[in-house]
Amino acid sequence: MANGRLSNTQKHIYKADESVSFSCNTGYIPKSGETTCQSTKVWSPAPVCNIVNCTVPVLNNNQYITEAWVSAKELTYTYGTTLNIQCNEWYEIFNGSDTLTCQEDGTWSPSPQQCVKIICNDSTDVRHTSVDNYPELEVGENGTVSYNSTYFYITEGSLEVKCTGSRKFKWTSQPHFGTVSYILQ
After folding, report:
1. Do 13 and 45 share a domain, yes or no?
2. Pick from 45, 55, 92, 157: CA 20 to 30 A from residue 121's CA?
3. Are residues 70 and 113 in the same domain?
4. Which domain holds residue 100?
């Protein structure tokens, strides 16, 4: 029997109306778990093991399947199929895997992870500003940072920054800073 085996039996010859149960290999499910020998010397129902199928995974917002061969018409995937999930631009997988695999029970593992907007957290390219007062910006958004220095002042430009895809704040227009001079008396 393809992809399965008879269960709990030592017999090689069966009489009409004798039944036997069977099980399937990992990744396959029985059409029925039992078959009966008919007077015509045929098993009915035929002992068949079908491969497990997973339905199209339900993806969260801002996610898509990256395989070029995946078609919107494809409604099921077979046991062992691996799909790569990617987030839309300016989003990233939150604390999880970007790969899903069709399991022997017909589910996807791990379950699709959440895609979240990228938030800026790197201010290394924005000098002379107070790190404590950066706005929480998502990629593509603009915001104004706090300027806090006793050694520099702005000669031109603004304190507006933009959150970039590399998680860094960048000046929207580079301000120019002047140095404060102190006269000692």
Report:
1. yes
2. 157
3. yes
4. 53-117
Residue with tokens 């035929």: 46
Q: Are residues 146 and 110 in the same domain?
A: no
161 phi and psi, to 5 degrees? -125, 160
Structure tokens at 185: 């008396």
| More confident call, 69 vs 40 | 40
Q: Which helix (H) or strand (E) holds 4?
A: strand 4-6
pLDDT of 121-163, one tens digit each?
666 555 555 545 556 666 676 676 655 555 566 556 666 777 7
Question: Considering only CA atoms, which of 131, 171, 136 is closest in space to residue 147?
Answer: 131
Residue 87, CB half-sphere, CA atoms under 13 Å: how many?
18
Give the CATH number for residue 72. Answer: 2.10.70.10
Residue 126 forms part of a structural domain:
no
26 lies in a domain?
yes
Nearest-angstrom CA–CA distance, 134 and 120: 9
Q: Count the domains in the chain.
A: 3
The DSSP annotation for 55-120 comes to: EPP-PPTTEEE--TT--TT--EEETT-EEEEEEPTTEEE-SS-SEEEE-TTS-EESPPPPEEE-B-
Residue type (1 letter), 41: K
Q: What is the DSSP letter of 43?
A: E
Residue showing tokens 């929480």: 136
